[in-house]
## 1
Amino acid sequence: MTQIPARIGTWFSTKGWSIHPHQQEMFDRAQDPATVLIAPTGGGKTMAGFLPSLSELADGGHSGLHTLYVSPLKALAADIKRNLRTPVDEIGLPIRIEDRTGDTSATQKKRQRVDPPHILLTTPESLALLTSYEDAPRMFDGVQRIIVDEIHALAESKRGDQLMLALARLQRLNPELRRVGLSATVEDPAAIARFLARHPDPCQIVQADPGPDPDIQMLETTEMPPWSGGGAAYAIPAVLEQIRQHKTTLIFHNTRAQAEIFFHNLWLANEDGLPIGIHHGSLDRQQRERVEAAMVRGDLRAIVCTGSLDLGIDWGDVDLVIQIGAPKNVKRLVQRIGRANHRYNAPSKALLVPANRFEVVECVAALEAAKAHDLDGEPRGPGPRDVLCQHILIAACAGPFDADDLYTEMTSAGPYARLARPEFDACLDFCATGGYALRAYDRWQRLQQRADGKWQLRDPRVAARIRMNLGTIQDTDTLKVRLRRSRGGKPLGEVEEAFATSLTPGDTFLIGGQIVRYEGLREMVVEVSRRADRKPKIATFSGTKFATSTQLSDRILRMFAQTDWPQLPSHTADWLALQRQMSRLPQRDRLLIESFPADGREHLCVYGFAGRNAQQTLGLLLTKRMEETGLAPLGFVATDYATLIWGLDAVIDPTPLFQPDALRDGLDTWLAGNAVMKRTFRASATIAGLIERNLGGQRKSGRQATFSSDILYDTLLKYDPDHLLMQITHEEAMRGLVDFGRIEAMLARIGNRVDLLRLDRVSPLSAPLFLEVGKVPVKGAAEERLLAEESARLLDTAGLNRL
Amino acid sequence: MNVCEFSFAGQRFGALPSGALWWPERQLLCVSDLHLGKSERVARRGGATLPPYDSHETLDRLAGDLEHTKAETVVCLGDSFDDLEAARTLPVTEGLRIATLQAGRQWIWIEGNHDPGPIELGGAHLFEWPCDPIVFRHIAQGDMRGEISGHYHPKAQIRLKGRSITRPAFLLDSDRLILPAYGTFTGGLRCTDQALADLMGADAMAILTGPRPHMIPMPR
């Protein structure tokens, strides 16, 4: 056992704390090249990460940067700075600690590059930016350790891929650099270790005691959950009762929209006037900070929130977590529950509230999975190449580079360990020329090879633009919302541009828990006035929806196979029994399709259980295929478990629709022109630097950007379909919004076992889909048929039919 | 090909799905607002860099319509080029393409506000072209009969059971006919716009372009 310096050990004792075994183990392993710590929330992770740094810096002998700390949240960096300051000051250690994020002032940033602190707290984007400067070798000279916090969250995103590329660069500058990752409970710690390690070096995993199992239950209500929707308004009285009985309650929602609606309803029913706040990523920063401060002071009894509170900021005394709506993903549920009882070795308490009848099944399945420690997660494929393109440009900003060296450097990053040389060369070529179809424009010819074989920026002035476009976060284009005043009123938050354009003056909607009236758009700001109506006209802005994980879907299907369901409330068990009696319950290794007439239209319900995004894609593919075979589809709607399609003609034979080859073909041809693919392309094209986010400080409006990215996409599709960005878009389409990977998985699972049941009316399981929002119309033969009818009718009414 | 036939100034005409106008008696094809070289001009003026394939695509469609109709005369109703510079710097391949299309045909370029001068391509260059009982010109004058023009890029919207469709459209009344823009990347002006509502008579009709062009009373 390595000895922790006496001064630090004494400080722990005076606080009445003892050093946890995993903190000691991390200290013992301080000289290892890479270590990942897996520990539950409240396990003293951060201290475990920093102890070796504090110890090494204790004698004041080190000058310059010693430890970099990277977290996914700016707020977390600021929080850690405060928390680290306390021991450092109380022990009297000669350590300078500073943070550097998007919020840091320009003067401060400049000074940090000349005279860096001992410990620098930053974000992946700020770090990548630092590596792009020519003086990076000087600033990072002598760096000993890097601590990556919340690495489980970063490992799931392109931000993490970018961070690992930046780390590879730092490691080349300082071969002795040691890496530490701090992770919440995950299903596959080895994957996190591979992600963090310098390839092919090993990375040790330290597991902290996971602590006692959480106490999770479904909230009991007297009201029955409704058949569809995500509002869970029926549970308001029961939730209020829970808030009264606990000190502080966190109420998690899956989307911002649901959080807004729930908060509004909660407020209307809050007769005792309990202090309740709302917190989500679309609210104005000031407003969020106010809620955070009130929370830390203990002024609030409950916070209605979304994933914006998912990551590890210490919110004090939360003693209950309520999850509204099915958790969609067991791992996230377990991590959220960890937010309650933020003390090591005390069980967390959580309640699940299904928002509709189907979610009752999903919640019960999630409860069982959490109890069985059966966490879910999709293994992530190799690192995406759009991030690689961006990093090649960043490398060029720092100075001329040799292609072989850069390839060696980049393949030492976990996500890119298997990157083949031709793939790298394609990215380099794209950065240099823009690709075949775009060769005519020098704007995209950014690199050139020098006589000595090194690559450099063709025009050094481009560096500023590349830096401005750095980063992988795709904010859906949002507009600020302000109260209308003579000199600009109070900022309230943001709404998505698509939502803003759907508004007409006089419409009312919810933001930050208040109802506001849309007055107009002024210079890209949505102006609103306060409105005391009881009911907003338009529910709220749209938000991202998570898809139910594969593992959770499997559990639901396994549950369906039971002969009866003692674990379900009787109203839900009866519903499933009725489905079994009238039709059939979906099975794991078969695909159930129901076909029936309703409301004068033909319907087809496909129970693929592939998650919302994949079911949506399946809807697009199937309707396109139906269009081709003359079945005149009119539209469809998708949920996590099924797609419901309606049209003019009945489907009797499903075989031609579900040929795997035909569906795969559809991804290449039919889907190619679809808006979802275009959005996928746009995200990758922005990251890879084909489309610029910022232009000299002036932001393009989202619409303008969409316009030119759509045109670029169409052009490449037609004239250069093998363009690197098209390849990347295709790779991306396997996951995310298109999620074709899960359709493939479903097809592999069911083989040719497709059962089409012809019913004479709506089945119990499909009925809730009729109430779903988000119906997608199909433009095609059916539309031409309707157009012909309508123009004939118009001419007839006008008495012009014989013209 | 689905053609929407109608009478205008005592003549039979056909509206083609692409937005071209076909006059069978004269074997004449008329297109308006090709805006060739638009992406190049936008880029030259420091705007968004659109891929330079729009001209290619516009000419593809024109070639298709010529192939189908075997027209003997072609009238381009102005704004054929996004500006005179675009006409001068037209890539060689596109210049050759136009020359091929012109072979064996009478070709008339009407001047538009974007291309108000002669260009170095074959064909006749005219401010306007009277072809009894019709006059072809770029911008509608308002007091003429039998006038065929372009310029406005009209489009029309129609509502169908819960959804709405907007398409480029021909506008037509007893005195004038306005063609939709034929070029790729050309925006449109809704026929409900005051300028068009004032110009068109009370009896105005709109013909929506698309796989099967449809005539409806002009939405106002």
Note: The domain at 4-217 of chain B is CATH 3.60.21 (Purple Acid Phosphatase; chain A, domain 2).
## 2
Amino acid sequence: MTVKYTEDHEWARVEGGEATVGISPYAAEQLGDVVYVELPEVGKTFKAGDEAATVESVKAASEVYAPVSGEIIAVNDALEGNPALVNESADGDGWFFKIKLADEGELAKLMNEAAYKDFVAGLE
Amino acid sequence: MNRQGRPTSAGAPSPSAAPETFSGNKGLEQDEPLLFEIGRDGICGVDLPAPDKGIVSRLGGLERDGAIGLPGVSEPEVVRHFVRLSQKNYAIDLGVYPLGSCTMKHNPRLNEKMARLPGFGDIHPLQPVSTVQGALELMEELAHWLTTITSMPGVALSPKAGAHGELCGLIAIRAALEAKGDKRSRVLVPESAHGTNPATAAAIGYEVDEIPATADGRVDLAAYREKLGPDVAAIMLTNPNTCGLFERDIIEIAEATHDAGGYFYCDGANLNAIMGRVRPGDLGVDAMHINLHKTFSTPHGGGGPGAGPVVLSEALAPFAPLPFVRRAGDGFELVEDESQTKGENPFGRLVAFHGQMGMFVRALSYMMSHGGDGLRQAAEDAVLNANYILASLKDVMSASFEGPCMHEALFDDKFLDGTGVTTLDFAKAMIDEGYHPMTMYFPLVVHGAMLIEPTESESKESLDRFIRTMRGLTEQAKAGDKTRFEGAPYFAPRARLDETGAARKPVLRYTQPQQPAEAAE
């Protein structure tokens, strides 16, 4: 199992050809209290970098991009009733969707945890 | 003590010594229940006759059979309720209202007097045109001022607000493209744009593409040229932009847009900064809305409807919507449908009637009482005031961009780093100081943005008081005193509201409590 990060602050936890996707705790903190999450339809396919979901906080609405290409195989329905999960557990129960990887080679373009930490440190 | 030696505090007992009141009110500060909590079933402020016995229902079984659930209140109860609520409200008539991007300037009383003249105030849109010649002449005169100020030949007066004007402008652009048989799909919008720009483009079916900003807060011209193509219908650009900066490359942007066959929509929300100094028509703008409720001092922010006339270039003017006023002999006529057009090609009708007549009167009153030189002075003073604020605060707060700025000063939250105080906390503390907060967290290109637009209405003394307050708050935050911020506002009728709760679990409908409390009388 590996966790990869994008420059748009999504994470992807990869296990057996599938990736669970969410936003990083840093992104959740920047957004402030999340009040609404719009999730994609299961079965939809995205290319890496496509807008896949929307997250709305008291401050702003932001897009969540698909970190890798593939088909949506599950979404986190719990976010609909309880968007606060994104703030409480951005890298755990606050995941957004699971995507079936179309091309594992794309993972090489993403950052690992150490590189992402450096990236965030550079932003502050 | 003030300068006359009078004590400036009323000598009121300190809050701890003040008694709890039995009513829950504090003198003039009245605790106000909901209208539903005031009323009682069966009370009505109007005395309506009972319907005749012989009436036969034609509703076919669709009659309402339960209570309608309206609050039962008398006229004095309604009047008191809304007057009390209005007393809790902040308004431009109460103090500095530095809400960036909104141009909360003074609304001159002369405007109100003019708008109440019976020939303007008591007419109806369906009245015969021969009986409202004066009103039509006023619209024609307003159109003349707007086209002269902007150096644009055409104008559509009917849009009812800024975003409505954007819609009007983009539909005119689409109509002009379609008339040439040119189908285009993309609209380019800078990332610092007002949210209404991409929303308008998306609402009429265009794909929105973002143009990145440069490090100095302006449109990246090179990136813009790269994004331009034969599928680009328009660029939507605000100038001065939402960072309070003049887009220096605006002429190059207009030329590049036109070379690519697209149109240039300018968001005129910030016209107050350049009125009388820069004519958008000279810059190559094809369409621009003008917020009469910002630049031309008609009431807004709860005080009145908006009005967003759109000025149009020669290429777009023929597509202006119906209805419009036209000179006819000694008088004026209203072109209401396409059979009356003479060479124009209106895209249709945007609203039922002619637009916000009351705002037309107020705006023209403002223009004529200021004159061309006065309007120019207003713009210059607005820019001067904003720069005074920027210069007086940038040593303690963090200015996002090096000045000079236009009519608004933009700060970010770097100066609050490590204090534990956020932009939101800072804004709430301003409420305790008796100020309406500035615009916050917008524009999005700046972290924790604070956008301050003082307008030309403030005197130097008023700005100095505001600056002293902002400096005081900044020093407190940096000194590590968080209490004044975290719990703010302390002195508002309600403490800090739970915005998250309101968004996550909104209560959208009043429900009667199980055992209604005895109404306080």
Note: Residues 110-367 of chain B form a domain with the Aspartate Aminotransferase; domain 2 fold (CATH 3.40.640.10).
## 3
Amino acid sequence: MTRPDLSKTSAPAPGAGTPVLEVDDLHVEFRTRSGVVNAVNGVSYTLAAGETLAILGESGSGKSVSAQAIMGILDSPPAVITGGGIFFEGKDLLTQPAEEQRKVRGPGISMIFQDALSSLNPVYSVGFQIGEMFRAHRGTSRKEAKKKAVELMDRVRIPGAAARVDDYPHQFSGGMRQRVMIAMAIALDPRVLIADEPTTALDVTVQAQVMDLLKDLQRDTGMGLVLITHDLGVVNEVADEVAVMYAGKIVERGTVDDVFTDAAHPYTDGLMSSIPQLEAKGGRLTPIVGQPPNLAAIPSGCPFHPRCSRRRIGAEAAPGRDCAADVPPLRLVVPGREAACHYSEEVLGV
Amino acid sequence: MSDDSDGSTGATAASLPTTAAGETLLEVRDLRKHFPLTQGIVFRRTIGHVRAVDGVNLTLRRKETVGLVGESGCGKSTVSKLLVALEKPTSGSILYKGRDVAKMSGRALKAYRREVQIIFQDPYASLNPRMTVGDIVAEGWAVHADVAPRKGRLQRTQELLDRVGLNPDYVNRYPHQFSGGQRQRIGIARALALRPEIIVCDEPVSALDVSVQAQVVNLLEDLQDEFGLSYLFIAHDLSVVRHISDRVAVMYLGSIVEEGTDEQVYASPSHPYTQALLSSVPLHEPALRGQKDRILLQGDVPSPADPPSGCRFRTRCWKAQDVCAVEPPALVDRGQGHPSACHFAEARRVVPLEEGR
Amino acid sequence: MTDQQQADLRHDEMEAGTTTGLASPSVDVTDARQNSLWSDAWGHLRRNPLFWIGAVLGLVFLLVAVFPQVFARGADPRSCSLSNSQQAPSADHWFGFDQQGCDYLANVVYGARNSLLIGLLAVLVVLVLGVVVGAVSGFYGGLTDTVLSRLTDVFYAVPFVLGAIVVLQSGVIGRGVVAVAIALAAFGWMTAMRLVRSQVIAVKSGDYVAAARAMGASNGRILVRHILPNAVAPVLVYTTITIGVLIAAEATLTFLGVGLQRPAISWGLQIDAGQSLLRTAPHLVLFPSIVLTLTVMAFIMMGDALRDALDPRQRG
């Protein structure tokens, strides 16, 4: 596997440094009894230090699967990475031996999950579990590890950290458990943090606290943050760049300001107009018709075309741009913006 | 359907704010539900109570949608279970067309259960995996045989499926063959089958994908117009609640802290909790980013087994004073035009004004 | 959203393609007929070869049990000649002779009736006791559950065989086939009860049960339509395996002198008697063991097929 050509990847985010994580044309499929499910079909993105990239998608879009592939925690079988590369600081993780990969995952890239309760072991104290990171990766002594655990719990703003270090996960509330998870994830100062729906299970008031914490930690450490979510509001308030996923592919990518103000892909556009506003009652909602796609039988051509109001098929379509037959590539539509739609210019009105 | 009801309750509700004029169908007065906390297996002893619902007042009129918002553990789901008589209230009353549901039994309770239906949050758990869609939708008729004559039930089932946007040919399919949004439509068809007056919607769109949520919200709105339904819409998503509701009640730790029309509650919230809640909702318009009033609450919701004295919210409130620990604030209009359960209620715009799409 | 839903959503994300099949719906035109779980299950069973193998095997053994004379090739299991003792199988006597010099094929064939009767009868009692006690205990909960669960524990505390010995020794219900079956079932139903009880408790908190209750459905309807169909699968599998255990347990009782006694004929008796001659005449253990295994396999295959048929998610 060679290094991907950087020129074709997205425009750098404001204030972006050198890329720390590059995903190049990643393919993941699930080989199940009843057939092959194409969960991720060619996903590419780069993440610079200090940058926040949001991966926005609904269930079945492949957003979580791609993150699991990066972390090497796919259930395989049935999952198989069938192509592409995952480059951390220039080195392809997928071509390295398992031992090397383990050295990256944890100190280099770490991840937090949506369900903090099931991600923590109920029979060990949270302090022990945070300290485990130091003992396992750095061979720190028990006493020293505990001291570091208290420091970290302080850093993620768990009140009374010194007193709570010996408490067990069930003694914490949902928001506090998520903080414990974050403490474990940042323990070894990773360069990249992948947050998979970190606040979905939390209430909005607690969500606001946790997102605030993540943003502050990122500012302090300069790590890159990949935020996987289905919540457009969270993306808008936290991320610099956004990649919208549908049926295992990125269908639109650009800065959050651009994409959310004026979408270039009909799917993004549909999402924006289907959610009600908080600041006004608004009229009737405009939903996207139909159901999310079946990943075992992804529609031909553009995977979104059966639900798309702008699709052009057969005689209506421009040559080579038939939505039902020709797969639209992710292409640069206007500077800083890529979209996988044959008619993005029309959607944008440029 | 019986349109005529005991009109005596209409007067008591007249003082509450309203936009939709209709007779009062449901009136909840000082509703409480305390679950005992027990210890021991053979000899259980009660060591305390979880005050899941602790003094809720609500009024629901015909063809009206009342939104009930609150965070997890505030007791909103227990309210829904009390309303459909799945739980018995500890005290207080639920008056349906003037009659107390807790005192109903036999025929009256059965009739109530026909007229008040529920839609659940989880489209995966709320349908029996071993029943066909047709059986699920038609089950109500097996219990309430008078609603639909035995002959022609299949046709009516198919009409209902068609009405909620599903292919009528799917009657013989099983729930697992459908996606989340479609399953939720099956749940709606099941509720509709009994031609109810009221549907309690317990987080009906929370488990659905964003693109599908709007479909279900629109469907619920259409059905309301077509069948003259009244909804109690329980959710934690404040945007959805605003969109669908005529009136909104905000719940915190077992009781309602603020109530009013959607405009009153969202544009001029006067209870600190409502303000904090609204402030925490992330907005999806880049133009509005950073325009919100930032109120970051500290700490977690106290345990409903041991709620704070006086005002429930005082432990997290920036306005709290000595009086708050002593005197529980009543839910009354404090000069804001709508009721607020705060001693220091004061309208404050938290959410920025609409910019238009 | 609760954790459970999140898990489901994630699960859905993985399985989205494999289960929904909605992108290309194959519309089956309704023929003015409403399918039910049972009719669909039968339709599925009919297409399951495993079920047919099991059913044919089971039917053969059933015929053997009812009309042993047809299958014994004219031999009488009780006309024996010691001169033939322990003779190996031959063209005329397929299963050879036992220690008494009786035709062993005839013995095995005539043993089917007692063994099957004991196995089926005992398993039926286990199933009924297990499902009824488990369902009532799990569904009603509270004091009912406490009393029934403790009662089950009492039975658990008595070793299976010891309990059966006490019952049979007391002579209250005699020493015949029915008595042995009841004695075995009386101390073998507890696991089935536990299985049903835990399933019922898991299922009854489901939203669809709440939906039925909110609709005004009676307890009976909820149990029969919603809870039991979703709770019986594990116990079905368990009981099909138990048939073999029960038939074999009958042999243990015989060995201890409280089960069926000669001149009664059963596979248990034969395996038991053959054990001591394993080295000189292995066929005495081999043949009854083979038919016992085949019988158990027949029921396991049918039970497995039935479980799959009753779970719409397992169907193609």
Note: The mean pLDDT of chain B is 87.
## 4
Amino acid sequence: MSSDTATSTGRAPTVYVPSSEALATVLAPGARPPRPSPLSASLTFSWRALLKIKHVPEQLFDVTAFPIIMVLMFTYLFGGALADSPRDYLQFFLPGIMVTSVVMITMYTGVGLNTDIEKGVFDRFRTLPVWRPAALVGMIVGDVLRYVLAALVILGVGLVLGFRPDGGVLGVLAGIGLLVVFSFAFSWVWTFFGLVLRSEKSVMGVSMMVLFPLTFLSNVFVDPSTMPGWLQAFVKANPITHLVSSVRAAMAGATDSSAMIWIVLWSAAFILIFGTLTMHRYNRR
Amino acid sequence: MSRRTSGLAIEAEGLTRSFGETRALAGMDLQVPAGTVYGLLGPNGAGKTTAVRVLATLLRPDGGQARVFGHDVLSEADAVRARVSLTGQYASVDEDLTGTENLILLGRLLGLPKSAARQRAEQLLAAFGLTEAAGRQVKKYSGGMRRRIDIAASILNTPDLLFLDEPTTGLDPRSRNQVWEIVRAVVAHGTTVLLTTQYLDEADKLASRIAVVDHGRVIAEGTPGELKSSVGSGTVHLRLRNADQRPEAERLLQTTLSVPVQLEADPVAITARVGGDGSALDASAQAARALGELSRAGIVVDDFSLGQPSLDEVFLALTDRPAGPATDERDDELEAAR
């Protein structure tokens, strides 16, 4: 078959003959526009992330189906045993499972970056004279939309099952806001691993090894006061615990200022350390 | 200041780069004059792709220096990036996006306002015969179309230097011709092209100068004609009327010329290298003598030509082995870089 028929439409393809006039019009050197600002370049890259969602909507599966399964599974698994009823448990549990699900989704940022690089399109991005972190910032901004979507799906399921937050709309929005800020910062851990590790599979493997203990050894599922001392020490230091405490407080209409300060510090540290490591790696290869 | 610069587009001295045990670049020197197509010719794994990636600021060399239009690829990477474009061996566009979206994305990243980026995208798609496929995802494009959208993306900002890394590998002959036409048009408009290829005829047809690369080093450099004559022999191609006369023709040629004679796949074709070392006569005299012997023996020759050796033969003479496949460089690099 001819080279120009990629899809089997059945009609005869028009053969492309390079025309020197047509090529001349596109090859005439024009004035070069000034390079875009860091913000504009990052937004352009997040537009790319949105286009990818448009063309490959299946990728939203992990921000919709996965969170729904998490909420249903754990609410009915633990609800009766840990509280009087699933509905009672949900008042305590929903902010925690929201944090768990969204934080787990952050690992797809690393997986996505790894695949992108494998395909070679980043070679072109890295030869563009734009602000260096823009490609990665844009990618994570696109992912933030997925985090928001996952949080809203969980909230929806929670409300249907009987979650009634005392903090009202503002409290819930503040809680989701905190979660999204932390997740944005936390994503830089995965961009680093996405650049360093060999394959998509190893990125997944490492993420799971980090995420499982981090989310389970926390105050997501139960009150840590019944845990042995050494475990309590870990749980208290765990950023996920601080995040859950502050999201829980916000949704209940209160403020946990010490947890909030911890979250700000953790977020800043993730961006500073892993953002720098990521960019170092991105520039060096 | 003029956008186009005369003089040298690329100057590289002693570039080295290793990936683990593999020495991809082992002291490569390059001088690429501006405004020409310069061919880097060599087998897979010779170091061509690594050289391109160093020059395009994608990879740091372990040692040596490289300047693109006078800008150092390490300390002035941004200035280099503003003037170059890369069409890699692997698709350097986003396969999930459509042709239009890819070009608008790049236009925006190069600083064009939205409407100008769209207009530029449409222009490019039309010039590259992709208007019909504009709204289709690139992953649904054929090999030839994919190459074209890739090159269109690379000339979006009319770069001063375009890297084409094996632009026709895996393409059918017609798509290959289309790419060649495009390359000729690009260079005619003042863009310097650094072309890597493992196809000798491609370097021969497109490049005004060629560097033959092997084991991370330039082992010969010059115009295609210079490279061929440096090997110092010509080739006689003969086509006989009767295939059954070929064995006798072979024997005659061998005895009169005392040179290697090659039987081609075509049952009437026969090839002999003449004018080699130690021969008293020059190539044309030898060829004339061979023709005389054949006609005396009653062997009818339908077609006769005396030409320079092919670049294939040049490569063989330079490296003592044919230009064959080896390992895939970028895979080595991805392996080692992690």
Note: Confidence is low (pLDDT under 50) at residues 324-328, 334-338 of chain B.
